[in-house]
Amino acid sequence: MRKPHLLGRGPHLPVLDRVVQYDFEPGYVVFTMPAPKRLRVEAGGTLLADTVEGLILFESDHLPIYYFPVGDVRMDLFERSERRTRCPFKGEAAHYSLKGQGDAYDDILWRYAQPLPACPPIGGYVSFYWHEVDHWYEEDEEVFVHARDPFRRVDCLPSSRRVQVFFDGEQVADSRRGVFLFETGLPTRYYLPLEDLRADLLLPSDMSTRCPYKGEASYHRIKVAEEARDGIVWCYRNPVPEAARIKGLVCFADEFVDHILVDGIEQPKPVTAFSHGYNYHGHKD
């Protein structure tokens, strides 16, 4: 069964939580869909894969992953390594390294040549570790962090509802000029003009993260008594076009503030991967 704090990962289709695909873990699912975009991968200055017949694989508690037909990958550039891994839901994977590159691109490609019966038929496909290659492209646009999930929608809607944010016992924001960001499977985020915040509580930060749906986020530290905490307040200064409405606005992590009121009603504190110490890319912070 999917872990409650990871329900925002993968396709947000609650009906899948009732599917019994694996007897030893009911509710856990692995399935694929065609990926109609042109997909390309580059590493070491070489185009390694180029396909219009890829798959996108969805797995409970995991981010979506692109798989490429073996025939659309420069397998002549790879050599099989000694590394083997085993997944209880897909089977044993063989790994491959790029030839003639020293250890710079070791074990960057994997293949389940004989997937388990309950797994989708991915034996004729391979995939790459996202952060171990240099560039990923969907059509002619470079994509960062991970594959974009077609089940995830991001809506940025202006709202005149009053948003108040309280942190460390003080009101730190009060606005009727926010943009509410609704992202499938995740809590609503409230993006507010800097002018409606207690700017005296915000300090510069070197922290940044990247989201495939919104772009690169820069952070502010926020004062807590005699300390300043990072990772709670962020801003997208140059978001991707689909999220242009949040440009320059500031957001607080609902998980870590005291509480947020919307039109005087306290919003439930969300339980997410973020609140469990993970970012939305699956890495422990």
Whole-number radius of gyration? 21 Å
How many separate domains?
2
Determine the strand fraction and express it as a percent band. 35-45%
Number of helical regions = 0
Tally of extended strands?
22
Q: Mean pLDDT score, rounded?
A: 90
**If strands are numbered along the chain, what order do they take across the biggest sheet?**
1-4-5-9-8-7-6
- What share of the residues lie within helices? under 10%
Overall morphology = elongated
CATH superfamily of the largest domain: Domain of unknown function (DUF427)
Q: How is the CATH topology of the largest domain named?
A: Metal Binding Protein, Guanine Nucleotide Exchange Factor, Chain A
Major pleated sheet:
7 strands, antiparallel
Q: Classify the secondary structure makeup into a structural class.
A: mainly beta
> Spans with pLDDT under 50 lasting ≥5 residues?
279-285
Kindly summarize this structure in a few lines.
Helix content is 0%, strand content 44%. The chain has 285 residues and is mainly β.
Provide structural commentary:
- With 285 residues, the protein is mainly β.
- The protein has 2 domains: 4-142, Metal Binding Protein, Guanine Nucleotide Exchange Factor, Chain A; 154-266, Domain of unknown function (DUF427) (Metal Binding Protein, Guanine Nucleotide Exchange Factor, Chain A), CATH 2.170.150.
- The chain has strands spanning 30-35, 39-43, 46-51, 54-59, 65-69, 78-87, 91-98, 109-111, 125-128, 135-138, 141-142, 154-159, 163-167, 170-175, 178-183, 189-192, 202-211, 215-224, 227-235, 250-252, 259-262, 265-266.
- The strands form 4 sheets. The chain has a 7-stranded antiparallel beta sheet, with no helix packed on it. The chain has a 7-stranded antiparallel beta sheet with strand order 12-15-16-20-19-18-17, with no helix packed on it. Strands 3-2-10-11 form a 4-stranded antiparallel beta sheet, with no helix packed on it.
- Strand 2 and strand 3 (46-51) form a beta hairpin.
- It is elongated.
- The two termini are 24 Å apart.
- Residues 279-285 have low confidence and may be disordered.
